[in-house]
């Protein structure tokens, strides 16, 4: 017997839709937690600027999730690409920085020392700007 | 009685000085020094406060921008998930309503082409 429930229940985790994604929208996700993402946020913003802006312009055009799937996949792929590069080149520095962020309530100002070593590593090994 | 009148006169050597002034010891720096010192201190304090406000504003700006840079990625992920759920819900709806004639699956209740997130969802 099917029932109607408020859609807000979906975000509270009371109902998890087990249906797999349809083939046109299936895509692996980034899968990083908040601290590594926050640590790499400015690099993601700089590295994926074009894709991000394209996606946001698309969202501005039409808010329907189905409308910007292609642009969204590009955004995710770009972020994953950058994360792979960071892990290949600066994994140790990145880990030090995001662990510090985890420890300090994810405040940037508490981790300037680790941030600058991470930045130095990225700027010396990954020329992307 | 002599012809020269006797007049009252101060004692020989004169009276000592009458001490009518208050002889307080000099206490602390002068008013000018105090006033200018306090003004300087207040100026310095206000300057440092201003610097602190600027720094806090910059930190807030940094935090906000770090979130702005992450929005497209997170939104793309959320959109894919919403799309997956919507497709699944439409399939369930089609399955449930397949015997009802003239039923349009996934039809919006609004007379508008603008996308509106679903407020209700059909659960299996």
From TrEMBL, chain A:
<keyword id="KW-0999">Mitochondrion inner membrane</keyword>
<dbReference type="GO" id="GO:0006120">
    <property type="term" value="P:mitochondrial electron transport, NADH to ubiquinone"/>
</dbReference>
<keyword id="KW-0813">Transport</keyword>
<protein>
    <recommendedName>
        <fullName>NADH-ubiquinone oxidoreductase</fullName>
    </recommendedName>
</protein>
<keyword id="KW-0496">Mitochondrion</keyword>
<feature type="region of interest" description="Disordered">
    <location>
        <begin position="1"/>
        <end position="32"/>
    </location>
</feature>
<keyword id="KW-0679">Respiratory chain</keyword>
<keyword id="KW-0677">Repeat</keyword>
<dbReference type="GO" id="GO:0005743">
    <property type="term" value="C:mitochondrial inner membrane"/>
</dbReference>
<comment type="similarity">
    <text>Belongs to the complex I NDUFA8 subunit family.</text>
</comment>
<keyword id="KW-0472">Membrane</keyword>
<dbReference type="InterPro" id="IPR016680">
    <property type="entry name" value="NDUFA8"/>
</dbReference>
<keyword id="KW-1015">Disulfide bond</keyword>
<keyword id="KW-0249">Electron transport</keyword>
<comment type="function">
    <text>Accessory subunit of the mitochondrial membrane respiratory chain NADH dehydrogenase (Complex I), that is believed not to be involved in catalysis. Complex I functions in the transfer of electrons from NADH to the respiratory chain. The immediate electron acceptor for the enzyme is believed to be ubiquinone.</text>
</comment>
Automatic annotation (TrEMBL), chain B:
<dbReference type="GO" id="GO:0005743">
    <property type="term" value="C:mitochondrial inner membrane"/>
</dbReference>
<keyword id="KW-0496">Mitochondrion</keyword>
<dbReference type="InterPro" id="IPR009346">
    <property type="entry name" value="GRIM-19"/>
</dbReference>
<comment type="similarity">
    <text>Belongs to the complex I NDUFA13 subunit family.</text>
</comment>
<comment type="function">
    <text>Complex I functions in the transfer of electrons from NADH to the respiratory chain. Accessory subunit of the mitochondrial membrane respiratory chain NADH dehydrogenase (Complex I), that is believed not to be involved in catalysis.</text>
</comment>
<dbReference type="Pfam" id="PF06212">
    <property type="entry name" value="GRIM-19"/>
</dbReference>
<keyword id="KW-0679">Respiratory chain</keyword>
<keyword id="KW-0249">Electron transport</keyword>
<dbReference type="GO" id="GO:0045271">
    <property type="term" value="C:respiratory chain complex I"/>
</dbReference>
<keyword id="KW-1133">Transmembrane helix</keyword>
<keyword id="KW-0999">Mitochondrion inner membrane</keyword>
<keyword id="KW-0813">Transport</keyword>
<protein>
    <recommendedName>
        <fullName>NADH dehydrogenase [ubiquinone] 1 alpha subcomplex subunit 13</fullName>
    </recommendedName>
</protein>
<feature type="transmembrane region" description="Helical">
    <location>
        <begin position="27"/>
        <end position="47"/>
    </location>
</feature>
<keyword id="KW-0812">Transmembrane</keyword>
<keyword id="KW-0472">Membrane</keyword>
């Amino acid at each position: 017997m099917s029932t109607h429930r408020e859609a807000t229940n979906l975000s509270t985790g009371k109902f998890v839709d087990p249906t797999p994604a349809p083939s046109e929208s299936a895509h692996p996700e980034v899968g990083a937690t908040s601290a590594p993402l926050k640590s790499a946020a400015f690099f993601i913003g700089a590295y994926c600027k074009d894709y991000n802006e394209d996606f946001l312009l698309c969202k501005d055009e039409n808010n329907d999730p189905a409308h910007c799937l292609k642009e969204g996949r590009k955004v995710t792929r770009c972020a994953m690409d950058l994360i792979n590069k960071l892990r290949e080149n600066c994994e140790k520095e990145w880990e030090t920085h995001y662990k510090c962020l985890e420890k300090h309530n994810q405040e940037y100002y508490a981790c300037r020392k680790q941030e600058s070593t991470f930045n130095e590593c990225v700027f010396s090994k990954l020329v992307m700007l | 009685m002599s012809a020269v009148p006797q007049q009252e006169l101060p004692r020989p050597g004169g009276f000592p000085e009458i001490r009518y002034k208050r002889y307080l010891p000099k206490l602390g720096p002068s008013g000018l020094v105090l006033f200018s010192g306090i003004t300087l201190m207040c100026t310095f304090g206000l300057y440092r406060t201003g610097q602190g406000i600027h720094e806090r504003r910059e930190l807030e700006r940094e935090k906000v921008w770090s979130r702005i840079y992450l929005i497209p990625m997170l939104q793309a992920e959320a959109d894919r998930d919403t799309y997956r759920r919507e497709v699944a819900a439409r399939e369930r709806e089609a399955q449930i309503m397949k015997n009802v004639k003239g039923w349009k699956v996934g039809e919006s209740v609004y007379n508008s082409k603008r996308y509106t997130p679903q407020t209700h969802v059909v659960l299996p």
